[in-house]
Design brief:
homodimer, alpha/beta, 13 strands, globular
Chain lengths: 437, 437
């Protein structure tokens, strides 16, 4: 039987990779309480410094999957394909993408999380719809996939429980920002949910978790390799997150914008990312269909409405609105907006009540920020750039503080150069050398 | 109020030193249960990788001292001076040195620990003397120092309790081998015990905790700087620990050898190290005396006998002996012993019962190893090098396994070159640039 201190030494001193038997023993012993949280915390910090090899990571992720149940989607008649985003500001893509792809004939089992920090969570957004509930049993989930082709729900406690425990531990021990640990956390849940294919949206830039594009690319490659090794057809798009996606940031505000986009009236950047992801999802699912046609025909919106209804929501009910609205960031000169910092806007929305600081906190449905102007727009001196929404006017000052930094807004004498949102696409072929290494 | 995850990030990313206020808060919050063991474990692992600056280490050590009581030795009429060894195989120096220095007029408050792993503990050795007890109250300790000039006792639970808790945590989380953490652990207890001066024996070589002489030197300098910063006159000797010190390894066997050395009949290497340490201790205490004269006159042995008696021991009682004795390591050729590996002999003694694997384990008084030949001795083919002692004959096989490695014994055609045991001496002047940095 391995002893945990020796395993910690191996990772600390980077003497050799851990063996499959050692990793399997570690997770079994951790679940049994024979390895204590403080020992796992020290090991995670050593992994933060030295990483995990491709083989270690495959086994590590496999052990997290094996810690719980896995969903069996093989009985579905439609091909299953899912999407995951590492999170950004104004990132309501899932709300549009999931019903859109389902309306083209795929089954989209979106097991989502809640937001933490300045990036919102898809479940928090949907919960601003009157009556909508996030939790479904596994049977309800399968039924919704059969009937509507899409479900957005909270991941059940039975899927990869080791990840849940490790994530909570990483959160309090300063070991979140590790590529293999992030990759195994995301992929263990996605693989356990039973999807046949997966498209990952790995955000990079000021508003992203991975600010550095090289690290975002590394995370993307790591996750694609992991997915392929576990027989999930996986692709990753690295996309820019320097400014909010679309013009709405906040739960109900984002649902409103998503519904408009499904109705054919969405902002270009939001639709660009959504269509790019949709095309890759459909390709992996083996479906030939046009995402823009799915929107134009009304099929995508119809699927969205059925998706909301089957989880108790009323798609026709008016969304809640904030009691207090205020302008912020007033243009100091005429010119083109060249920068509107995603992180500053995300933190402002968070402080207005849209996000939570601790996972126990409640979020406000109505709080958020509307971007009245974005990079590329021409503004005149005195014109407001942002509109802040909240039910608690004391929060305006906190939001203003977040927007106060020098780099939040820039106005120039020429429009900013057009930069494509999709930085790169990572396919199985790009990581063939890592798979099975 | 600092938040512990931010402090972990600071050490993990090595962005800046922790402030005094942050370190003080950390120890207060840890004692209050507001910082959890898993958080401290992650921080310790980050410190393992990035170390502590001189200023951080001073504050860290100060916080460990402030976590408990400190002894006041100012009422003693003799100058106080203590010694600490980082631990080696056959290292019974304290048993000779402490009464020797006391017999020259110093007060030696030796608060010692127990052995763990292949190095023995001074208290374990003394407990092989019938009647001797390790635990004294603070009052008994002061009285013994007044009456005899020396006491070897267990450090009370009141001294640096934060160190006790941190050490236990480091032991199970693979974070023992960190120079600043080792230095703060040793020095917090020594400073809290109230000694005015301190000589450190930092062992290096195969049988030492610090196998690498450069790291041993770094630990020595770190501890001397820490002592001087806390107003303890401190000096460190880096000494070689490639082969057992003296010829006896094991509790009662070492007491027997120490008593012989006090009576004038000790092995050269043991006396060399003891006299070197004694000279530095006496110098720091401001006492002019000759250690060899203290032995030759019988004063040192007399002090030893009084030291044993005042703690309930009978210096005239026969020491326990093992029921089973067996030869091991038979010379395969004629020649000079050029190597007898300290670690292999230490592990063999440990497995015979002289040491413990976990701190709850009991040790055997009688178990151990006698070295019949050592490097520099001429041996003939067939001559046994070691004599193994144990009450449990099943352990002979375990000990033999430890001795089985290729590098345990080497016999050559010429005697090994004479290498001085004392590698270097670190004084306050050598670390003047670090003190107060």
């Amino acid at each position: 039987m391995p002893d945990v201190v020796s395993l910690i030494h191996v990772k600390r001193d980077n003497t050799r990779p851990l063996t499959d038997a050692e990793i399997d023993w570690l997770f079994t012993a951790y679940a049994a309480g024979e390895v204590a949280d403080e020992q796992m915390a020290a090991l995670l910090m050593a992994i933060y410094f030295h990483g995990l090899s491709a083989a270690e990571l495959r086994t590590w992720t496999g052990a997290m999957i094996a810690s719980g149940e896995t969903l069996d989607l093989s009985q579905l008649t439609r091909p299953s394909v899912d999407k995951h985003s590492t999170g950004g500001v104004g990132d309501k893509v899932s709300l549009i993408l999931a019903p859109l792809v389902a309306s083209c004939g795929a089954a989209v089992p979106q097991l989502s999380g809640r937001g933490l920090g300045h990036t919102g969570g898809t479940l928090d957004k949907l919960e601003s719809i009157p009556g909508w509930r996030a939790s479904l049993s596994n049977d309800e989930l399968i039924r919704a996939l059969d009937e509507v082709g899409v479900v957005i729900t909270a991941a059940g406690a039975g899927l990869a429980p080791a990840d849940r425990r490790l994530y909570a531990l990483r959160d309090v021990t300063g070991t979140v920002e590790s590529i293999p640990l992030i990759a195994s956390s995301i992929m263990s849940k996605k693989i356990a949910e039973g999807t046949s294919a997966l498209v990952l949206d790995v955000k990079t830039g000021s508003g992203a978790f991975m600010k550095d594009p090289d690290r975002a690319g590394q995370l993307a490659r790591t996750m694609v390799a992991l997915g392929e090794e576990h027989h999930v057809r996986t692709r990753a798009l690295v996309t820019r997150m320097d400014t909010p996606l679309g013009r709405a940031v906040g739960n109900a505000l984002e649902v409103e914008e998503a519904v408009k986009a499904l109705a054919g009236d969405g902002p270009d950047d939001l639709l660009d990312v959504t269509f790019a992801l949709a095309e890759h999802m459909l390709e992996l699912a083996g479906i030939t269909a046009s995402p823009s046609e799915a929107i134009a025909s009304g099929r995508a919106l119809d699927t969205y409405r059925r998706m909301i209804r089957i989880q108790g929501g009323d798609p026709d009910a008016p969304l809640p609105t904030a009691r207090h609205v205020q302008h912020a960031l007033i243009a100091a000169e005429d010119g083109w907006v060249t920068r509107l910092d995603a992180l500053a806007v995300g933190v402002a929305a968070w402080r207005l009540g849209a996000g939570r600081a601790r996972k126990e906190d409640a979020v406000s449905s109505v709080a958020g920020v509307r971007c009245l102007a974005k990079p590329g727009d021409y503004v005149q001196r005195g014109q407001p750039i942002l509109e802040l929404h909240t039910d608690d006017p004391a929060r305006f000052a906190l939001a203003a503080e977040a927007l106060d930094a020098a780099g939040t807004l820039a106005i120039g004498s020429a429009p900013p150069p057009a930069t494509p949102l999709v930085v790169s696409v990572i396919s199985a072929a790009d990581v063939a050398d890592q798979v099975g290494a």
